[in-house]
Amino acid sequence: MDEGIAVNVQRRNRAATYIGVGAAVFGILLFLLLVYTVGLDEIAANIAEFGLPAFFVIVILYFARMCMRASAWMLSVPEPYKLKYRDTIPAVLIGEAMSSMVPLGIMISGTAKAVAVRKRIPFVVGLSSVATENIFYTFVTSAFLILGAVTLSRVFVLDEAWAWTVNILIGGIIAVFGLVLLMVVRQWHFASWVCDRLYSRGYFTLILENGRRNARLFEELIYSFYRTYPKRFFPICLFECGYHLLGIAEVYFILSRISEMPSLLNSFLLESVSRTITIVFKFIPFMIGVDEAGSHFVANTVALGAGVGVTLAVIRKGRILCWALIGLLIMARRGLRFAHVFDADEHR
Description:
The structure is a single chain. It contains 14 helices and no strands. By secondary structure, it is mainly alpha-helical. The chain has one domain. It is globular, with a radius of gyration of 21 Å. The two termini are 14 Å apart.
């Protein structure tokens, strides 16, 4: 690798490390503040009331959600290539482990999935299929978040500041939704255009010598999918919807164990806010602190109580940790290391 490129890569990695560590520290401090505000005894009592058998239930529900994403991914792979559940489910768990545990892991989780299946399909094909599935996920999730934000702001009385925040959020989601849709419909080759511009100006020439062609191939694979397989759109969207519906079911099950007022409306609102926080603050490992803060806000708004909201987030964080550890075990068994993912991400 050229010395200048190596220095730039090191600087970028160092900056990412500083940002990740800073985000993690912020999340931990916020988490401790919320625990102190609500009271450790109340949270511990709620967790004890929830019980270990019930925890196994939400662990299984979370696995079912991962199966929904894995199913959508399988349908996003173009012919003649094909993936099966034994390929996609372990890869999804590996990607979730990277995304949850590594600061800024959301930036490499897709690469981790493609690396995990590179013995079955070419890396570029795997990466483009992950991106295709993510676009469908973005469409369905955007609709889910807009519906949740509108319901929260119209059904419940919010402070003026929060009302403005929710309205800005709705506008932002609609803007992102429209931008992604426009990119797909117009087939903008934005990534390859940036790579070509950098290469022509002499930046990152060693990496971009092949990388710009891979970027073009990556985009073509994504756009050709939408032209070639329109009949797959609806099934993929159904699997993405199943992912969110299982999330609502999970919240409802937890509330039925720790609250006297479980309802589908409250479960829907708590899940939609949790999904929003996941998107915005995924760079914080395990979303520690911010997930509890979001659940705290919604639980207070719908009169469930702050303790219930924070407990809900803590319990759900436990099942994420459980499956993240399983994802790491799968990585170890397959001989995959974090370095493999980082190297693939660097040279993709």
